[in-house]
Amino acid sequence: MFLRNAVVIHLVMALLCPMLTHAAEQPVEVQGLPFSNGFVFDIPFDGLQQGTAPYDLTRSHDEKTIEQFVTVKQERFVLTGSDKEIRFWGTNLCYTACFPPHDVSDRLAKRLASLGINIVRFHHMDQRRYPGGIWDRDAAVATTPAYRDVNPEHNFVHAKLDAEALDRMDYLIAQLKRRGIRVNLNLKVSREYGTADGFPAAGEDQMIPRRGRGVDMFLPAVIEAQKRYARMILEHVNAYTGMSYAQDPVVAMLEINNENGLVYGWNLGMLDRLPKSWHEALVEQWNQWLQERYHTTAALEKAWGLSLQNQGDGNLLQQAQVKHGLRLSSAKASIDNGEQSGEVESADENRDVMRILVEDKKMSDWRVRYRWTNLELTAAESYVLRLSIRANRQQKLRLTFRRSDDSRKTFRPSHYMDVSEQWQAFEIPFTTPTDLLGNTSQILLGMGYAGLAVEFRDVLLQPSRPTGLMHGEGIDENQQVPWPNKSDLAARNSAFQTDAMAFLRESEIDYWLQMKRFLRDELGCKATVTGTAAGHTTPQIAAASVDFVDTHRYWGGPKFERSRYNRSQWTMKHLAMVNHPATSTIARMSTRRVFGMPFTITEYNHPQPQDYAAEGFPIMAVWGAYQGWQGIFQFAYSHNRQSIEQHGLSGSFFDLSGNPVQLALMPACSTIFRQGAVAKAQGQQAGFVSLEDQLAGQLVRGFPRLVEAVAYDGGVADNAWMTSAIGLARTPQQANGTSSTSMQQPVTWTGHDQQAGRICFTGDQAAGLIGFVKDHPLDLGWIKLVPGNASLNGFAVVMINAVDGQKLGRAGRYLITAVTRCANRDMGWDDQHTTLGTNWGSLPTYAEAVPLQVKLSPQTADVQLYPLNANGSRRAMVVMKQQQYELQTGMHTLWYELVLNTGKP
User: What are the tens digits of pLDDT across the range 224-243?
Assistant: First the structure.
C-alpha cells in the first residue's frame, strides 16, 4: 500500500514540477529593493537535506577523526597518529550565542556541519554574568566604581561559573563533536579587573585600560586571575561527553588573550596613567630587568651615557620655507571667524594666539587639521615641539608627525593631548628616522570635532639633546630608573629607547610562555595554543612563544562617528576589494605569516550591509588555499541566542546567521579551502627582520597595530603574494626566494586598474570567478560559464565544485554557486549611500540571482541540470537547448546541480 501511494505521489509531482518551475521563472518584482527580481532563500535552521549536492560537497568524514587530537607539524595542523593535514573553516559564537537552549544546539550543530564548518570559536564568554555570560548569575556586583568607561554591571566578583551556562555550553559542544566540529576556546577576552575582585579603582588622573589590556601581561595578581578562570573552564568535565576540556580532542585550539599585547598596550598609551600600585609594579620589573642585564649603575651609565642637558636653540617653524595653515577635508572651519572651505596656507603664525573654530557637523579629527609642513629636519636627530593650547571644552587632540612625501608614513607615534578650557603647556619630543630626506616632514594638529574652538600659542620646534641616564637614576641600592610614559620616551636617547622596547618585548614573551606552560604542564591541555592576533602582538613574538600565528582582518567595516559601535551614527564605504589588491586584506595578512608555523585568521568579514560583501569569503578561501594557510573563521555567526535562528539581516554588521548569500557560499568556500581545491603556490618569498629593526619598529610606528615588523620589512616585494607564498623567516639563513616553475598560475587577479577587478581560479576539483565578471567566461574546455549582468555593474561570484571527489570534467555531480548580494526592503540609505542608521528595512531578506549561461562542449553529453531549493534539494530539471542552459534570475536560486553522467576519461 505504501509503495503504491509513493509511486502515485511521484507521478503527480512529475506532472506538477514543470508547472511549478515555469511559475518560479516568472519575474516577480518586489518593491523597495535595490535590484529587480529578488527572492527569499532561507537555508533551514536544521541544515541542508542529506544526500543533496551542497550537503555531500562538505562531507569530509570529520566525525571519524574527532577523537584524534590536533597537533602541529611545521606549517600544518595534523591529526595525532597520522600525517593527515586538517585545515579549519570556522565561525565564531559570541556572548549569549555560546549558551543556546538544547533544541537550538541540536539544529545549530546540524546546520553548521552541513555548510562545511568544522570548528567553532567560543568568544566573549567571560565578560558578563549569566544569562549574558558564563559567570555565576548571583555574583556580587561592586558598590564602588572600577574606572572610567566600564559598565558597572561588569564589575562583579569573578569566583564561580554559572551551572546553567556550563550545561548549555557542554551540550552545544557535545552536539558539535557529534557532527565532527571541533572548538577553539578563548580564555581571556573581555572581562574587567574591577574593585569587586579587590583591584584598585582609578584615581582622578589615572586610567585603567578597558578589559585590562596590557596590564594583564605583567601584573602577577591579574595573571593569577586569568589562570583561575582557565582552570575553571579546562578542568570542568562536560556532562555530555564525560571528558574535561583539557583532555577532550574536540578542543583543537586555545587562545590565551584576545587582541592584546604589552607592546601594543604601551604604544596606545595604556600604561601611562596606571594606579600607583600598578605603576610601581611596572617600575619594579623594569629595574629588575636592567639589574639582570647590567648589574651596576656604572655599567648602565656606560651603555646609555650620562646626560646633563636637554635643550636646543632657535625655532624651526620660523624658517622661510615652512608653510602652515588649515588643512580641510570636505569640512568647514574658520580662523577668527573667517570661514575656510579648502586648503589655506596662512601667514598668521606670528600672532600671539591662533584661534580656530570647527564649523563642521561631523566628528573626525582628520577633517580639520592645522599643518606645519616643509619642515627642514635632519635624519636621525632629536627634536622637541612645544606649544600652549586650550579649547572651549574638554577634548582629546592628536598631533601627527609624518613625512610629507607620497608615502605619508608617520615617524613618531601620535601624541594625544587632553585639552580643556585652561591653558596648558605641552612638550613633545621625537626623533627622526635615518632615511628622512630634506624638507619632507610635517606636523598636523587634528581638531575636526563639531563645535570645537581651539586656541594655541607659543609654538616652538627646536633641536634637542636626548638623555640617557639622568643624575640620581641607577640600579644600585636605593636607586631606580623610572619607567617612561610613551610620550616621554622620545626625550631619551636611542640606547635607552632600545632597552625599553626590549624590556616590553621580552616581558610579553615571558607572559605568553608562562601561560602556555600553565596550560600544558599544570592543566595537561592537549590542544594547540596561540596567544593573540598578530597586529596586537608581533609575528616574531608569537613565533617565540606559541604554537601558531593568528591574525584578524576586516574589509570596509562601519566607521562610527561619535562613540564605538553607536548603531545610529556610522558610515560605510562600498569598495569592492577586487579593485584594490595592493591594499587588500590578503596583502596585509600574508605578510604576518611565519614560515615553519601554521597560520590562521580567526576573525574575518566584509561586514554587512556592504554592496560587495559576497566577494570576501570566496577570496579568502582561494587565496588561503594558495598561500597554504591553515584556518579561516567567519566573524561571526551570531552574537546572541536570539540571532542564532533568524532569517535575514536585522541590524548586525557582523552576524551571518541570517545572511542568505554568505550562507549559500559556505559549502563551496569550505571545500576549496579545507580540501585544497586550489593548489598551493610553488614559489616562496621569505623575509627576515633583525631584532634591532623589530625594536625600532615598535618605537617609531605610530598606528598601534603596525608595531610589528612584517615580511615586507624583510625585503619581500609588495606584490609577491600574488605569485608566491610569502611570510617571515625566523633566521637570516631561512630568508629566501624561490620562483614558481609553472607557466600557469592557479589564481589570477586582473582588471583592477580599470576598476573592473576580477579573480579567476582553477583547480582539479573547483574553479570560479569573483568580481566584475560580466561577459568574462570561465572556460574549462568541457564547460563554459558565462555570467550576465547583475545590478552592480556585473559584479558576481560564480563557482563550480566537484561534489563526488572527481576531477573537473569527469563523471559525477557538480555544484554551481552564483551570487551577488542581498538586501531588505526599504533599507534607509542616505543620499550618499553611506549609512542607513538604524533603519535596516523590513524582513524577509531578499537575494539577487546572477543570470548565467552554461555552455557545454559538443563532446559533453548525457547531462542534467537542476536548480536547487534552499535545503539543497532538486527542483525540476532545466531543459538544455543546443548544448546550452540559460539560467535566468527568475529561477530564484543561488545553487544549481549539474550531473555529468559520462565525463572525460
Answer: 999 999 999 999 999 999 99
Residue 854 lies in a domain: yes
pTM of the model: 0.86
User: Is residue 240 included in any domain, yes or no?
Assistant: no
674-711 residue pLDDT tens: 999 999 999 999 999 999 988 887 776 544 445 678 88
Q: Which residues contact 560 (CB under 8 A, 6 or more apart)?
A: 566, 569, 570
- Neighbour count for residue 452 (Cβ, 10 Å): 22
pLDDT at 363 over 70: no
Q: Residue 322: inside a domain, yes or no?
A: yes
Q: CA torsion angle for 208, 214, 219, 223 (degrees, to 10)?
A: 110
Q: Give me the residue label for grid cell 546567521.
A: 657
Place of cell 551614527: 569
CB-CB neighbours of 350 under 10 Å: 7
Calculate ∠ Cα 595-597-600, nearest 5°: 105
Final residue before a domain boundary, out of 437, 463, 489: 463
Closest CA to 523 of 185, 792, 848: 185
Please report where in the chains the cell 622637541 appears, as a residue. 384
Amino acid at 41: F
Residue 430, in any domain of the structure: yes
pLDDT at 348: 44
Answer yes or no: are the C-beta atoms of 467 and 249 closer than 8 Å.
Answer: no
Question: Could you give the CA distance from residue 722 to residue 622 in angstroms, rounded to a whole number?
Answer: 12
The alpha-carbon radius of gyration of the chain (Å, integer) is 30
pLDDT mean over 188-201: 93
Place of cell 556610522: 570
End-to-end CA distance of the chain: 44
Distances (CA, A) of 869 to 251, 520, 872, 874, 893: 34, 47, 5, 6, 7
The pLDDT score that the predictor gives to residue 311 is: 59
Domain edge (last residue) among 443, 463, 483: 463
Of the pLDDT bands very low, low, confident and very high (cuts 50, 70, 90), residue 11 is: very low
504, three cell numbers: 616590553
Side-chain half-sphere CA neighbours of 464 within 13 A: 23
Assign 3-state DSSP to the chain and report helix, strand, coil percentages, each to 5. 30, 25, 45
User: For residue 78, which phi and psi values (nearest 5 degrees)?
Assistant: -135, 165
Which residues have a Cβ under 8 Å from the Cβ of 100 and sit 6 or more positions away? Answer: 108, 168, 172, 641, 644
Q: What integer pLDDT is reported at residue 148 of this predicted model?
A: 60
Residue among 808, 761, 815 at smallest CA distance from 904: 808
pLDDT of residue 269: 84
State the total domains in the chain: 2
The helix (run of H) or strand (run of E) holding residue 861 is: strand 861-867
- Contacts (Cβ under 8 Å, ≥6 apart) of 695: 498, 501, 502, 505
Residue from 740, 685, 681 nearest 710 by CA: 685
Cα–Cα distance, 747 to 681 (Å, whole number): 9
Q: Which domain holds residue 886?
A: 28-53+745-902
C-beta neighbour count of 84 within 10 angstroms: 12
> What is the tens place of the pLDDT at every residue in 559-597?
987 666 778 889 999 999 999 999 999 999 999 999 999
Beta bridge partners of 867: 896
> Tell me, what CATH number does 410's domain have?
2.60.120.260
What are the tens digits of pLDDT across the range 421-461? 999 999 888 878 777 877 778 999 998 888 899 999 999 99
Q: What is the pLDDT of residues 425-434, one digit of tens each?
A: 998 888 787 7
